[in-house]
Amino acid sequence: MNDDNPIGINRREMLASGFATAAATSVPISAQAKPQPADQPNRMKVTMTVNGEKRTLDLDTRTTLLDALREHLELTGTKKGCDHGQCGACTVIVDGRRINSCLSLAVMHPEAEVTTIEGLGKPDKLHPMQSAFIRHDGYQCGYCTPGQICSAVSTLQEMRDGIPSHVTADLEGTPPFSVDELRERMSGNICRCGAYSNIMEAMLDVAGERA
Amino acid sequence: MKFDKPAGTNPIDRKMVIGKATDRIDGPLKTTGTAPYAYERHDVVANQAYGYIVGSTIAKGQIASIDTADAKASPGVVGVVTWENAGKLGTSHWHTARLLAGPKVEHYDQAVAIVVADSFEEARAAAKLIRVQYKRADGQFDLAAQKASATKAGDGADSAVGDFASAFASAPIHLDQQYTTPDQSHAMMEPHASIAAWDGDKLTLWTSNQMINWAVDAMSDLLLIPKENVHVMSPFLGGGFGSKLWVRADAMLAAVGARVTGRPVRVTLTRPMVFNNTTHRPATIQRIRIGSDKDGKITAIGHESWSGDLPGGGPEGATNQTKKLYAGANRMTALRLAVLDLPEGNAMRAPGEAPGLMALEMAMDEFAEKLGMDPVEVRIVNDTQVDPENPNRPFSQRNLVGCLRKGAEAFGWNKRNPKPASVRDGRWLVGMGMASAYRGAPVMNSAARVDIDRNGVVTVATDMTDIGTGSYTIIGQTAAEMMGVPLDKVVVKLGDSSFPVSSGSGGQWGANSSTAGVYAACMALREKVAAKLGLDPKSAVFENGTVSAGGKSAPLTDAAGLSAEDRIEFGDLSRKYVQATFGGHFVEVAVDAYTGEMRIRRMLAACAAGRILNPKSARSQVIGAMTMGAGAALMEELVVDKRFGYFVNHDLAEYHVPVHADIPHQEVIFLEEEDPTSSPMKAKGVGELGICGVGAAIANAIYNATGVRVREYPITLDKFVEQMPRVA
Amino acid sequence: MRAFSFERATSPAEAAAAVARTPGAKFIAGGTNLLDLMKLEIETPTHLVDVNDLGLDKITPTDDGGLRIGALVRNTDLAADNRVRRDYGVLSRALLAGASGQLRNKATTAGNLLQRTRCPYFYDPAMPCNKRKPGSGCAAIGGFNRNLAIMGVSDKCIATHPSDMAVAMRALDATVETVKPDGKTRAIPIADFHRLPGDTPQIETNLQPGECITAVTLPRPIGGKHVYHKVRDRASYAFALISVAAVVRDDGTGRLAFGGLAHKPWRVEAAEAKIGDGAKAVTDIALAGAKTTPQNAFKLPLVERTLGGILTEARA
């Protein structure tokens, strides 16, 4: 490998990009090639059932399910933490399964049944998992919380459905209910405030188990 | 209300509401997704446009030209703002680097433009069409390489007592080691976000900010408008950890974008941009020297730390705790600061102590081993009840020994095998480690307004923020305790610059200071209420919605319509006494004997941190900080590309923070403590103590498990796997 | 993200034809990697063909006793399938070691094979990258390359393939079935599916333009103990530093494939003859010719030690 010119950039490219420097070995070339002018957005209609209500949206095809919920339906309980599937704050339940709504286009979900945090419960009528999060202080800033709760509800369902996990010792049996199983399955939901230990207590409480 | 004498008995001491483990009053909003965060305010102003920020692709140099023609012509675009058309902007002393580059570029991903469009999708697409030509300048990006050029980091950078050099040289036992901590990112879950709207020359900003008053101040300075023309609201934040102490590019460019385009503008930083555009905890190189007699009593202790920042920036104060934590007649500390052209370094949860204790408490573990003493006992024999740099100044309270003893007992520390790499559990090597925790307990003046309505509902308004700390609840508890009403009769309004100026959230000062401000306002209100009801204010008892004195009583509702505002103003008690919080961390880890994979099995912290206002949320603060400390010990590192001068791993897939599977059940013990010198609340704050020392406790446990000492954080397995004993 | 038009295809051949006839078109299935990259304009399709309605979401037995896994079978469903858990445990294990529950619910079998590298320079459009922009250079060489490739690298690219699933499939000798725009089908052995970077790191597989994956087939079960050991920087939800997919039989024979080492799942069949001689004997052959950097040289001992653990426990 040639460490003298690690980025393999040549001088012509560099000048074409407008860099007036001699630091040839350390110049990012950047995205300096002339981009093509933007095309007109394409719009499409999509109808889905969100929290039990049929909703039809006319959307730019680029709209993610997350932005359709937050910006178009103003269901802002679903959070944008990274927009790249790396944090889980956008977790919603679609057709019975939890997914990252940031990595799915709204137009990919015609006729889908979408449940968001707002569909699980309301401040005066909390879902048992929401109550348990409050009781066990399973949150701090609250930003990852809707995703954690949607994921927690789905996780308990996935365990009931017998879906194995990375920590399931015996693949052929029914995964045992354990806090290690819950932790592994919840690992796609990052909580930077660090409420993990309390979230486990909340989930164990809802599942009827003791820590 | 002046607070310049230790508090006597006061209404808070009844502890009918304060001190009780209480569910957060904002819980129903947060758990149902109905708490409104900054970017979610569809309700506040019509016709909002979307802003999308473009960051610099060079670390240092000049913008030669910016071509925005294609972006402006892109569908849906309302306007593009760069330094060339932003209008005159000021600077703010809260920032080292400017929030909008041009023509000078000071760091990678410094904002160079904002595109404003009708939709997020259109703004994002158009942002890619902006072409910036740069003149790149050489920069300095390597702390180790710049260490020799580092200079004394301002007044107070150094301290010295006695004759360190001679004492260290003559000490029969001595340790001299270097430790490093990397750049780290706050990585709070909500990226910085703002909505800005202008009404004439008046700005309203809905943002995500820890310090409302600083935000007003900075926006006024940046936009060159009077402070009274700035209205900032931040009722909910998706975490901050120091990253949101100051307004960032989202706030300023939302305001500038709105001013230029005439539309209200909403902006969020994208996650990949957060890491290089905003602040981070700077890396450190630390040298620690400890000398002692054979009995383990320290005779000489020295701590030097090197860090870097942009020109005009500040150091990471990694020597803070070493000035206070252990006794020793001869001592020195020194902070050195190098110029680096990386993004701006600044405060992250427990700045100073967090990285400082990662080094100091690993050094203490090594020192204990040299002495052949138990690590807990070494710390206990070096306890001090006075400031070791100024023996005339006592600690207001200091129960480090109690934390260590109680923590050790609860954890089962006596089961630890002091011989490293000697406990095996199947394929796992098992070890235990511990560390002291230390964090100062600063206070800040704080004001609040309290009023009573005809239903007996007490409403508190203060510009204090709740960044996950539980401010809503402890402020509510304080008002309930003071006014003698149940918590559900209290309404708490936070995070609005039209409210009285509070301490804000930072440096673990928020809980104690802001509730003390509420205490002051409540005392003022109690006087008014008593006067109105014809009762003696000195002896009046507020309880169960009733005010009683001298055998007479009246319902609080008879005082409906009354309102009072006051401010707690702290005197010089914090100079007379060292006010600080203490703890002991105990950790058990398992290390895969084959692969070096590490799993934390148990964590326990024993804390002495003044009166605990809400044990439920205080415990959460501690476990959360322990979790962040686990990240610092095991995985967190912003990796510097020293050629291009930026943090390479700028997303949450590559900048690893702990996930559920990394964190075991965590135990927290609070020692009984009330500090009358700290405030009328007798509290100290506990938001940062949990991260202090825990990283070293984990590191020490890994050493105990494996027998391999890694002094460069984070302790990833590549740094020691080859040195582990062969097992197959 | 550039603007794109969108259509839903209803048959594999139609989907392949739609992509072939539209310049800049791409298939979208789970979208978990493609949308991630489109947001950064690393991928810039002008037209998306949604293949989720193709009916390729079934797992069915093959005539020779194996399994045919539809291209659209979600990672969760593949990992949870009772036949896979019983007969191809290494595949279940690999899938469950990857990503998160949410991502596995969406990600598909074909999409998993087509994941693109996680090299941080590939992910930053401001940086040179021969994979993203051929000829621009490789910033990873001489840069941050702790988690990049040590086997089969070129001076143009040291990226790794991020899939766990593909590593297990490589150990199992899977076959990728496709349909081309002209309607013709073919079967590609997984060994020949991914490419090494060479001079064209932007070309990652041997698929032809418009060629659509329809299924992955597994040969009849080979028995043995199935292990997938993924070593990563945190306990879950992270890409591999290295991984080992192993099938070890009682007679000392077996299969081994490695992840996190190369631009494709890494397998050297000749090394498998040495399983009985221990991890070092295996890695001496499997990792011969490794080209490491100071940052990623740890992968060599780590693979050996990880394999050592697997073989020790398999014998126990």
Which percent range describes the beta-strand content of chain C?
A: 15-25%
> What is the number of E strands of chain A?
5
Count helical runs of chain A.
7
The CATH superfamily of the largest domain in chain A is: [2Fe-2S]-binding domain
Q: Report the helical percentage of chain C.
A: 25-40%
Name the average pLDDT of chain A.
86
Strand order of the largest sheet of chain C: 4-5-8-6-7
Could you list the spans of chain C in which at least 5 consecutive residues all have pLDDT below 50? none
Q: What is the β-strand count of chain C?
A: 11
Structural class of chain A: alpha+beta
The top level CATH class name of the largest domain in chain A: Mainly Alpha
Q: How would you classify the quaternary structure?
A: heterotrimer
Mean pLDDT of chain C: 97
Helix fraction of chain A by DSSP (H/I, runs of at least 4): 25-40%
Sum up the overall morphology of chain C in one term. globular
How would a textbook summarize the main sheet of chain C? 5 strands, antiparallel
Pfam family, one (chain C): FAD_binding_5
InterPro entries (chain C): CO_DH_flav_C, CO_DH_flav_C_dom_sf, Diverse_Substr_Oxidored, FAD-bd_PCMH, FAD-bd_PCMH-like_sf, FAD-bd_PCMH_sub1, FAD-bd_PCMH_sub2, Mopterin_DH_FAD-bd
Keywords (chain C): FAD, Flavoprotein
GO molecular function (chain C): FAD binding; oxidoreductase activity
Written overview of the protein:
- The complex is a heterotrimer of chains A (211), B (728) and C (316).
- Chain A contains seven helices and five strands.
- Chain A is α+β, with helices and mostly antiparallel strands and 211 residues long.
- Chain A folds into two domains: 41-120, Ubiquitin-like (UB roll); 121-211, [2Fe-2S]-binding domain (DNA polymerase, domain 1), CATH 1.10.150.
- Chain A has a five-stranded mixed beta sheet, sandwiched between helices.
- In chain A, strand 1 (43-50) and strand 2 form a beta hairpin.
- In chain A, helix 4 (128-135) packs across helix 7.
- The model of chain A is unreliable at 1-35 (pLDDT under 50).
- With 728 residues, chain B is α+β, with helices and mostly antiparallel strands.
- Helix content of chain B is 24%, strand content 27%.
- In chain B, strand 20 and strand 21 (428-440) form a beta hairpin.
- Chain B starts with a strand and ends in a 22-residue tail after the last helix.
- The mean pLDDT of chain C is 97.
- Chain C has a five-stranded antiparallel beta sheet with strand order 4-5-8-6-7. Chain C has a three-stranded parallel beta sheet with strand order 1-3-2, covered by helices on one side.
- The longest helix of chain C is centred in the last third of the chain and has 17 residues, at 299-315.
- Chain C contains eleven helices and eleven strands.
- Helices cover 26% and strands 18% of the residues of chain C.
- Classes of the chains: A alpha+beta (211), B alpha+beta (728), C alpha+beta (316).
- Chain B binds chain C through residues 57, 75, 121, 124-125, 128, 272, 427, 592-597, 599, 634-635, 639, 641, 643-644, 648-651, 653-654, 656, 658-662, 716-718, 721-722, 727-728, and chain C through 1-3, 39-41, 118, 120-121, 123-124, 126-127, 139, 142-144, 146, 229, 231-239, 241, 278-279, 298, 301-302, 305-306, 308-309, 311-313.
